[in-house]
Amino acid sequence: MSKDSTRRAAPLPLRRSRSLVTRLTRLNLLVLSLTLLICFVLIGTSSWYAARDRQVQAAELSAGLLGNSLAPMLAFEDRDAALNEVQAFSRRSDLLELQVLSASGQLFAHWSSDEKRPLQLAVSPAVVATLGTQSQIRGNEFDVWAPIKLKGEVVGTLRMRESLQSLLQTVWQMTLLATVLVVLAIALASWVLRMVQRAALRPLVDLAELAEQVTRDQDYSRRARIERLDEVGRLGERFNQMLSRAEVWQADLSQQLRKEQLVGQQMQQLANEDSLTKLPNRLFFQAELQRRVAHSVEHSELMALMFIDLDNFKTVNDSYGHDAGDEVLREVSRRMSRALRSSDVLCRLGGDEFALMLPALSDQAAAEQLAGRLIAAVREPLLVDGRVMPVGATVGLAFCPLDASDAAQLLARADTAMYAAKRAGKNTYRRACDASAA
């Protein structure tokens, strides 16, 4: 071996190696500390605002749901039921105050965690009725105002005040814990960096040379030689290339998975939707009826099921064609849907048969009145290509848990009631109890 080769292969002076170790350790710690500090501030700030906004959004959604429950109580001035509903809702841990106002602005129901605190209304009911749900953050509290609507008409206003104190306390606790962990991590990193870089810097440079030779020549018999200590950066470049490729592959895979998930959701929606009327189909109805009947029985809540059959629909198909029949089905679906509450579920079972689920009824008369309105809506003159279609509707009505506490039995009772209405002359409705008596 020549003297020149021996000179190049000789180890570097120890003082220079230690100087580079110290410098690299300080630079790494500085970059790490600044990065952690910036990330800590950004993540902490964004987490606070995101959590706060999520709590406000959750409160707005809860206010809307509560408003739907309170709407019939305001309409019928049932203060006792409204107070019970408010008391049940007040179990929310962060709730400070809840007010229910009538359409005229009078206090209808109220709950407060601090009865001595005066009531405040920063937004008038008229503004809420015009602009819809509003929210305002004030320090560690926020207010939510939501209109209470019944069939599209504003019947009152709901005002809810919640505290952000528990959320703020949680954020501070997480901040303190994260601070301790960051300090410990930096201290540990300082010690580890000194030990690792002092002991392993020469092998890393040799490994960088080896990576270059293997990449270029594919010769695994070569060995690395220490030339310069700053060659460790070349190893980072190679690893960065691999990481970059892995990131691209992962991004492609994630995008493909998202596309497949979206396709799956679309297929699920198509599986539960009637292609002609865009109403839920029989498959959806069977599962939903099971769920709603179980909920009605478990909570002793009155619900109704209507089995609706169109009269003279076969005549329409035979006399005017299937295109006219399809248009009749679409128009009848639109008419019936306009007469329903937001919680009611209208489904097309197939052909000219429909089913309607009415949850959370106040009494049986409400369902009977709705049956009359549906029949009247269908009987209004229906024109297709300028010709009046001779269609009507016959309805069978069954109640859960009065007539049946099982989904299949409830559907059978409603179907029997519908045939009783057919025998009574069509364009009318019959209840399951009336059909059984007959």
TrEMBL record:
All copies of the GGDEF domain together span 301-434
InterPro entries noted in UniProt: CHASE8, DGC-Regulatory_Protein, GGDEF_dom, HAMP_dom, Nucleotide_cyclase, Rev_trsase/Diguanyl_cyclase
Q: Respond yes or no to whether keyword Ribonucleoprotein is given for this record.
A: no
Highest taxon, organism lineage: Bacteria
- For this UniProt entry, which segments traverse the membrane? 27-51, 171-193
Q: Which UniProt keywords apply?
A: Membrane, Nucleotidyltransferase, Transferase, Transmembrane, Transmembrane helix
- Any one GO molecular function term: diguanylate cyclase activity
Enzyme Commission designation: 2.7.7.65
UniProt keyword annotation of Transmembrane present: yes
Write down what this protein is called. Diguanylate cyclase
